[in-house]
Amino acid sequence: MKVVILAGGKGTRLSEETNLIPKPMSLIGDIPIIYHIMKNFRYYGFKNFIILVGYKSYKIKEYFENFYRYNSNIEINLKTNKKKILNNSKDDFNIKIIETGLETLTGGRILRAKKYIGNNDFFLTYGDCISDINIKDLLNSHKKNRKTATVTAVNPRTQYGSIKLNKNLVVNFKEKPFLSENLISGGFFVFKSKIFSLLKDDNTILEREPLETLVKQKQLHAYTHKGFWHPMDNLRDKNNLNQLWKNDQAPWKKFFK
């Protein structure tokens, strides 16, 4: 199965960095967040990636074109200009990087890559969310329920403390609790190729009419992930993820072993 990653947006809420690079190239540790996401899928055996790019796409292309240079020891003979890789990467990714336009919306990006995605089921995710989701469990849930699409539902943790009152007296206080009644889309999808019939043009937003139509048709299944999930919407999110990585508390670090 192919893993499609949406990586073409401008990432304006992280403008401190995205003025220079696309958000998927923002670093967690010294590794772009998109690579963290790809390691999750590879851990479960999925290595064929289609990255849908737009804004500052050359940065993503340069990274993967020069992957060995960035991640390997090399030997260079300055007289002959011969280069030798001294250690090979363990990652056997196969990557297609597809230009999908600067202003194209999410559904339109997927539609532009239809010929590369093919007619089989495929994964879809965004280039700015990290999780420890079990990808095989997600896929098995999708196959079992036989719907056109499966979305991963996650329980986000609020950035604010929660209080419970009784006559203006605080009777319960929780720092950054999970919002147990507020499941949201975690951005890890599985689609059948039928989804292409709901994608009209570059202006199609996947998360609106296409998914809303699937809901009406009772063709959108939810897989609930109860583990770690964290977006990188802004600088605070990025700092949180880097802190987890630095302190060896990142639940997704197992994908790198």
What do you see in this structure?
It is a single chain. The protein is α/β, with parallel strands linked by helices and 257 residues long. The chain has a single domain, classed as Alpha-Beta Complex (Spore Coat Polysaccharide Biosynthesis Protein SpsA, Chain A). It has nine helices and 15 strands. The strands form five sheets. Strands 7-4-1-8-13-10-14 form a seven-stranded mixed beta sheet, with helices on both faces. β5 and β6 (82-85) form a beta hairpin.
User: Order of strands side by side in the largest beta sheet?
Assistant: 7-4-1-8-13-10-14
Distance between the termini: 23 Å
Global structural class: alpha/beta
> What is the arithmetic mean of pLDDT?
91
Superfamily (CATH H level) name = Spore Coat Polysaccharide Biosynthesis Protein SpsA, Chain A
CATH architecture: Alpha-Beta Complex
Overall 3D geometry?
A: globular
List the helices and strands and how they pair.
Layout: E1 2-7, H1 15-18, E2 27-28, E3 31-32, H2 33-43, E4 48-53, H3 57-65, H4 67-71, E5 74-77, E6 82-85, E7 94-99, H5 106-112, H6 114-117, E8 122-126, E9 129-131, H7 135-145, E10 149-154, E11 162-166, E12 169-174, E13 184-191, H8 209-216, E14 220-225, E15 229-231, H9 235-246
Parallel strand pairs: 1-4, 1-8, 4-7, 10-14
Antiparallel strand pairs: 2-3, 5-6, 8-13, 9-15, 10-13, 11-12
Give the tags.
257 residues; Spore Coat Polysaccharide Biosynthesis Protein SpsA, Chain A; alpha/beta; 9 helices; two-stranded antiparallel sheet; single chain
Short recap of the structure:
This protein is α/β, with parallel strands linked by helices and 257 residues long. It contains nine helices and 15 strands. The protein starts with a strand and ends in an 11-residue tail after the last helix.
